[in-house]
């Protein structure tokens, strides 16, 4: 039986390991063993049609140029030892400009998304005198991350989008929505979902978020989990910090609207560098809806 790979965790490990290696002057004691193990694991999830982010492109390019198929672990280690740590370090340093360029592009994209999102939600919040704003975070059970790759995540999000498009409960009386797709070191692939409802028809943010979370669990075949941002303790924290921007929002209450807009910008903050997706299954996949 083949061993499953936690794709999200492996990609972040590749990125962090590369950053670590290029800062060293001498080889770590287990460098060649670690290099071989990471290459083996990456080969299991590697797709030529994917676009890889920053330092991870160094690993994808390496697999494109060197065929390790059929090599045992010891054979691969021996093969890698034909070059020095210094040579490999220089190879990875060569991708530093690629990594920085991709980070700059990510920040620029998030800035554009922020402007677009603000325009979108401002229009939505003005539709009715009062709106019910719902936030729910969708992710996967940590112990099941190895069962979920990016394509699975995208398929699940596409199914959720279709359910939203039906405008049936819990999405009846929905005015507009937005989401941000992200990847975290411990959280794996996840989504921040924002829903704006006609506040004259919808009133319970907690209940709606719970329904959406239950739907997500069904879509993911039980692999999914969710965080209800309308949990009373969470709302109490937001209130104490004077940042409560979800729940009931009145369009003529400038303070409520301001807090709402501030809360919305969390979805596309340019400084959230560590949360970006490290791969895309096709170039035009949207990480922001």
From TrEMBL:
Pfam families named among the record's database cross-references: YagK_YfjJ_C
Origin, by domain of life?
Answer: Bacteria
- The residue stretches assigned to a coiled coil in this entry are 100-127
The protein's matches in InterPro entries, at most eight in alphabetical order, are given as: YagK_YfjJ_C
Keyword annotations: Coiled coil
What sequence ranges are listed for the domain YagK/YfjJ C-terminal?
A: 125-272
Record-given protein name: YagK/YfjJ C-terminal domain-containing protein
Q: Which organism is it from?
A: Acinetobacter bouvetii
């Amino acid at each position: 039986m083949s061993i499953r790979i936690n794709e999200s965790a492996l990609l972040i490990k590749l990125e962090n390991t590369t950053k670590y290696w290029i800062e060293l002057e001498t080889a770590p004691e287990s460098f060649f063993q670690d290099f071989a193990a990471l290459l083996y694991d990456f080969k299991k999830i590697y797709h030529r049609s994917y676009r890889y982010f920053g330092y991870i492109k160094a690993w994808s390019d390496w697999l494109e140029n060197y065929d390790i198929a059929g090599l045992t672990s010891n054979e691969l280690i021996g093969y890698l030892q034909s070059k020095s740590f210094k040579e490999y370090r220089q190879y990875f340093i060569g991708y530093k400009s690629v990594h920085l360029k991709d980070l700059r592009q990510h920040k620029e994209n998030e800035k554009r998304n922020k402007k677009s999102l603000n325009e979108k939600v401002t229009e939505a919040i003005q539709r009715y005198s009062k709106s019910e704003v719902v936030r729910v975070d969708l992710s996967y059970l940590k112990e099941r991350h190895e069962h979920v790759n990016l394509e699975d995540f995208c398929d699940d999000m596409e199914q959720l989008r279709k359910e939203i498009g039906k405008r049936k409960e819990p999405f009846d009386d929905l005015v507009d929505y937005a989401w941000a797709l992200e990847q975290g070191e411990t959280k794996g692939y996840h989504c921040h979902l924002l829903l704006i409802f006609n506040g004259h028809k919808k009133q319970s943010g907690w209940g709606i978020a719970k329904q959406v979370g239950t739907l997500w669990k069904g879509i993911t075949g039980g692999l999914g989990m969710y965080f209800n941002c309308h949990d009373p303790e969470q709302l109490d924290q937001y209130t104490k910090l004077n940042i409560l921007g979800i729940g009931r929002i009145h369009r003529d209450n400038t303070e409520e609207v301001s807090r709402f807009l501030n809360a919305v910008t969390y979805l596309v903050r340019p400084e959230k560098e560590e949360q970006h997706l490290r791969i895309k299954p096709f170039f035009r996949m949207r990480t922001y809806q």
